Amino acid sequence: MKFILILLVLLTAATFCFAQVKLESADLTNLVGVGETYSKGGSLSESDLQTFRSPKLNRVIDTLVASGKRDGSILDAKYLKRPSDEELVYWYVIREIHYNRNNENKKPQPSVDVAKEVLSTRFDPRWLLDNYYYRIRGGIASYFNEADLSKLDLRFAELGLTDPTEKAIFFFNVMEAVGGGRFMVLLATRNNKRILEFAHRFPTFEGKKYYTFTDFNYPDFEWIGYEKPESYNQRHFETYYTTLFAHHKAESENGDKRVADSLLRESILSKPEYFKFTSLDDLLKDLNSKN
Questions:
Q1: Report field, pTM of the whole predicted structure over 0.70
Q2: pLDDT digit string, tens, across residues 45-66
Q3: pLDDT at position 204 over 90
Q4: Contacts of 161 (CB under 8 A, 6+ apart)
């Protein structure tokens, strides 16, 4: 019995935590260089990063360059696809170096020490995956400012995303790139015209309108954004519900009422089990009571 319990603990640890990646000295130096260059901000080009290329880091650098081009390259399946576990750790090193160098409240540590600490620490793989899609989200958002993505169909299995948590992490990040903050501003300024223009250019998921995705049947988890721990769902449902609510309001008032009806009926706008994750819960209850 004791052996079985120990085995279960080990299996759980293997499933929910990983890191402890070993890098040769040259690769470590190059990864630190990538992190420090990233931390300066702005779009990165090949000339910014070519010095740090190595077989282990080529894909990371290719992805950063694609994201910086703002020409839609970042939407290629090879960049949207789930990276390997080891590569996800490299991206977390980049994140931590970036925050370490841009934290006004703390004296920065040497970047190499930050990198070594991340490489030797076990992390929740959900944090690592979310961090990856967050890092490339800016490139998607910038391209979407003018691009029509309505012909882009995103399929989870083709991107190596198999369980509900990974699908939701990807979905939330894409929707925050195309909706998210911009819809918060447009909703506050009551700019229904622009909301509709953007919404009609959204990509589809599994061949269907974005709002039909409702596969959020996974346990909420503690997540670290910039510094403080918070509920992953609390942060991401809030933004997504704002996108849905803004789109529904715009269709109801200035668009197609049939689309507005579909939005309410087929999306999580009508699923009260998720209302607890948003400050819009009273508005959503009122919306449903009127329909």
A1: yes
A2: 999 999 999 999 999 999 999 9
A3: yes
A4: 82, 167, 170
Report the alpha-carbon distance of residue 233 to residue 241 in Å, rounded: 11
Q: Could you read off the pLDDT of 251-276 as tens digits, one per residue?
A: 999 999 999 999 999 999 999 999 99
φ, ψ (nearest 5 deg) of residue 220: -60, 155
Place of tokens 């740090």: 52
In the chain, which ranges are continuous DSSP H helix?
Answer: 2-16, 25-38, 46-49, 58-69, 77-80, 85-101, 111-119, 125-144, 164-178, 180-188, 192-199, 232-254, 257-266, 281-289
**How buried is residue 243: exposed, middle or buried, by Cβ count under 10 Å (0-12/13-18/19+)?**
buried
Q: How do the domains of the chain map onto residue ranges?
A: 17-124, 148-291
What's the sign of the alpha-carbon dihedral 61, 67, 70, 73?
positive
Q: How far apart are CA 270 and CA 34, in angstroms?
A: 44
Spatial contact of 172 and 215, defined as CB atoms under 8 Å apart:
no
Whole-angstrom distance, CA of residue 199 vs CA of residue 195 = 6
Query: Please, which residues have CB within 8 angstroms of residue 117's CB and are 6 or more apart in sequence?
Result: 96
Predicted confidence band at 19 (pLDDT cuts at 50, 70, 90)?
low
